[in-house]
Write a structure and sequence with these properties.
The structure holds two protein chains of two kinds. Chain A is α/β, with parallel strands linked by helices. Chain A is about 30% helix and about 30% strand. The longest helix of chain A has 17 residues. In chain B, about 70% of the residues lie in helices and about 0% in strands. The chains are: A alpha/beta, B mainly alpha.
Chain lengths: ~260, ~350
Amino acid sequence: MTDSVLHMDGISFKRGKREVLKSIDARFEKGLFYAILGPNGVGKSTLIEILAGHLEPDAGTASLFGTPVDKLPARKVAQTVAVVAQSHDVRFAFSVRDVVMMGRHPHIDRFGSPSESDFRLVEESMAVADILHLADRPVTEVSGGERQRTIFARALAQDTPVLILDEATSNLDMKHTLSLLSVVKEKVKRENRCAVGVFQDINTAALFCDRFLFLKDGHVAVSGPVDETLTPETLWEVFGVKTRVMEDASTNSRQVLFSPGGFHG
Amino acid sequence: MTIATEQIRKPGDLPAFAKGAGGLLCLCALLFGAVLLSARLGFVEFSFGEVLTALWHGVTGAEGQSTAAETARVMVWEVRLPRILTAAAAGAGLAVAGAVYQNILLNPLADPYTLGVSSGAAFGAAVALLFGMGKAVVSVPLFAFAGAILTLFIVIAMASPSGRLLRCGIDSSNLILSGIMVSAILSAGLSFMKYLADEQVSVIIFWLMGSFAAATWQDAAILTGVNSAGFLLFLFYARDLNLLALGEKSARSLGVDTSKTVLILLVAASLVAAICVAVSGIIGFVGLLVPHMVRFVTGPDSRKLLPATLITGAILLLFADTVTRAVLPYEVPIGVLTALIGGPVFCVIFRKSRMGGGA
């Protein structure tokens, strides 16, 4: 109970007339890495945005350490929750280092200057995201994947108890996906933080996450530990695909095998 | 993963405001020089010595010792200086307002003119002039401000995909297109008012083309006051402006109360632009070009960009006004001059940003 960091209580959200989320209940606890999975347009990103306080739900409350998110000042939320969103169209030529330093914004007073430790965190985050060699390049001139890693580094530099990943690795190559998610998992385990990620790739999620939360038609279809929830039955119910689920002994994780014709027409 | 701190902190990396202070001082010196030079030039030319003496007499309120000195004092202190200061303040205000619009609307092409805010302010001010309210000091600026704000919100509402008032990454071309459409409607409205105005038509026309010829000490004071207040507000929000330049969601997740901040900044920038228009008429492209030029040197960090933009805007508009006042054989309205120079440059920037790369 005391470990609950994020709490969603009867969250509903409408986009126009369409009810995207219908009375969602969920809790996210310290020391665990959560994956939110589901078909396109099921409201995964909407859920994430409500968690991060970017959207206000039509009904229900999302709380952060027991306080409703919309009652908290933006700065306070930013000291607690960092978000890595997907696709960033940057039109102003800030350097990669400047963008990562913006992650320290919620921790620095309005007219304060970055401290020694702020600079160190920024450099360390850039090292983790493998963008040190780009530090002085304008962020408008690096590739999409490199920009995504910059945003990732910014969120790491934000150094918050909660990290939210909205398909944060979907345009990264395998190597950087693995290394960044390893860092997230390590932070979750060693520093008792909480991470929530939206994933398209079930197998990537299965490698790193502890808990799965499957969304379907605006409801939580299935949720719980990966071993219990990642089954062919769940995947058929949620995605309408036929799969085989294997236990990979070497990584001690479940992996899903798909087949070309294995989808529900 | 420990990294030696010596590597991290580069020389002068710490106080963002202090960084580039040398450059800023140079700009200030340049502005001061431009003021002196501009005060020298004109129908009657003075030496720098005469100008300085005249300024001293003006400040101390003493009359000139000789007729020549008294002539110089009247020319410099009572005729030229109000105009010089008004032009500089208007240039500074328009440029800074442009920089703020560009960051908030994520759009390097935004400026009070291309957004239609100037036309809105002009329309408001013309209404005040037409109905004979021009005599009250506050009514023209007030109407200009109302016109500017109203236009701004109409343009943004037209351009934003979801119809939300505040932006969620409004497309460049949409925004400029809406600005042009609203401006077109407003200028038709203006033409109609000119038609109605009869005897007063010359007042409106002359004022619309943009001119500092009639600038008074009062104009200079109002402009300087409002613009300084606006500038301090923008500096206060400079770091938030940086974050906003990466998009509303990013800024929000980094702790900026976006809806409140964006609203405050948009209204303040429009107020600054509207006051400039109310005093001087429509002067286009200053707000677009100056932040662009300055960004090449300072980079996009608002903490460095805004002060440099302020001074550069002042210098450039003062320069343009001096050219039309003292160098050209006939006085070309300043708004016409800036549009003649700024328009083509705008085309180049637009073309470049279409080809990718942005600002």
